[in-house]
From TrEMBL:
Belongs to the arrestin family. Residues 183-313 form the Arrestin C-terminal-like domain. GO terms for cellular component: cytoplasm. GO terms for biological process: protein transport. This is Arrestin C-terminal-like domain-containing protein. InterPro entries: Arrestin-like_C, Arrestin-like_N, Arrestin_C-like, Arrestin_domain-protein, Ig_E-set. Gene3D superfamilies: 2.60.40.640. Pfam families: Arrestin_C, Arrestin_N.
Length: 375
């Protein structure tokens, strides 16, 4: 440091959560401390802490002059508490005189309660659902404010003990396969799944019955679990659908004239976000598709929508532990999205949400399956 440079008055500014947990549920209360350490007296307009939940979406369509940007933003809740002085707006503070805050170590306590109904935390390239506590030192005049943030992960209460979760689902389809107007014959597929709601780590147990009345050898019976995310722009001006396959299971071929039973198969749900149906801008749903791969023809598909829950109910056999884990290979995201022209970020925050997961010890006698985990 040169002789002309002055040491920064603010030595430390951060948020501490008491008994910090990996996840929180709607309706829970938490307490914390906003820690301020000053080397010397500082003129401030005030010090505040804000507890906030917000949803954002953003994506682009088209290219060049045809490129169009779609955005959406919703504040789920915002609660603020003034800890020292005032919490002026950017316009008010321009004419507000500063108040001296003496040097030293200071801890300002706060307590907040989550609203009773909230969607789960979510991060993706096209949108996010975020919850955080933000501390702010409001500087008088045109000086930049100081900001510090702590992210919190919220998990919606989706109880898999509800009766509808245990309802067995079944469906069937009869489809004539063909190409370029040449029909090869009909294929019949009937399938069922054991219930409609699961926790990541659990197994979807299903059965399939296929009758190949065509002249073609079918490539194979297969199953896949898809995550479908709907993103919406404000005022319904745009809608984007993102679909990805989380895991696949490969079965046997079906020859012409053959009837095949694919019984008691299981597909494990990997670590993933819970279903989201209570958010106006982001919706997450899951579909298991049991299908016959017909190569160059349209596949014969039997899809079932299911719910990925958060509160375990139906625990399948085996030694099971309940924990919270982050999605493997997911990239951490920066939680500092404040504009640099209006504030100074005291430190960078990297964040990765965690989700409920049921883990059990493997059974050596279990049948080996060809499963491809795509997460």
């Amino acid at each position: 440091m040169s002789k002309r440079e002055k040491p920064m008055k603010l030595e430390q500014f951060c948020v501490f959560i008491d008994e910090e947990k990996k996840v929180y549920y709607p309706g829970e209360t938490f307490a914390g401390t906003l820690h301020v350490s000053l080397r010397e007296q500082m003129m401030v307009a005030g010090i505040s802490v804000t507890f906030c939940g917000q949803v954002k979406t953003c994506w682009h369509e088209g290219a060049g002059e045809e490129k169009k940007t779609f955005t959406g933003e919703e504040v789920l809740f915002r609660k603020s508490k003034v800890l020292f002085g005032n919490a002026p707006t950017s316009i008010e503070k321009r004419t507000m005189p500063g108040k001296p805050h003496k040097a030293g170590e200071f801890d300002y306590n706060f307590k907040f309660t989550f609203p009773q109904i909230l969607p789960s935390s979510f991060e993706s390239s096209f949108g996010s659902i975020r919850y955080y506590v933000k501390g702010q030192i409001h500087k008088p005049g045109i000086k930049l404010d100081f900001i510090t943030k702590v992210p919190l992960t919220v998990i919606d209460r989706i109880d898999t003990t509800e009766m509808y979760c245990f309802t067995r689902k079944e469906d069937e389809i009869l489809q004539t396969i063909g190409c370029f107007g040449i029909k090869s014959g009909p294929v019949f597929c009937k399938a069922d799944i054991d219930r409609g709601c699961y926790i990541p780590g659990e197994y979807i147990v299903f059965n399939a019955h296929v009758e190949n009345h065509s002249k073609k050898t079918l490539k194979g019976l297969k199953a896949r679990l898809d995550q479908v995310v709907d993103y919406f722009a404000e005022d319904g001006s745009g809608h984007k659908i993102s679909r990805k396959t989380l895991v696949r299971l490969k079965g046997p071929k079906v020859y012409p004239g053959e009837t095949l039973e694919w019984s008691n198969q299981s597909l494990q749900i990997p670590i993933t976000e819970p279903s989201i149906h209570n958010c106006s801008l982001i919706n997450i749903r899951y579909v298991i598709v049991i299908y016959v791969d017909v190569r160059c023809f349209n596949n014969v598909c039997v899809p079932f929508e299911l719910i990925v829950g958060t509160i375990p109910g139906h625990i399948q056999s085996g030694n099971v532990t309940h924990s919270y884990k982050s999605i493997p290979n997911a990239c951490t995201v920066s939680f500092n999205d404040e504009q640099e022209e209006v504030c100074k970020i005291t430190h960078e925050v990297e964040y990765l949400p965690a989700y409920p997961y049921l883990e059990r010890t493997s059974n050596k006698d279990e049948k080996e399956l060809i499963v491809e985990d795509l997460t």
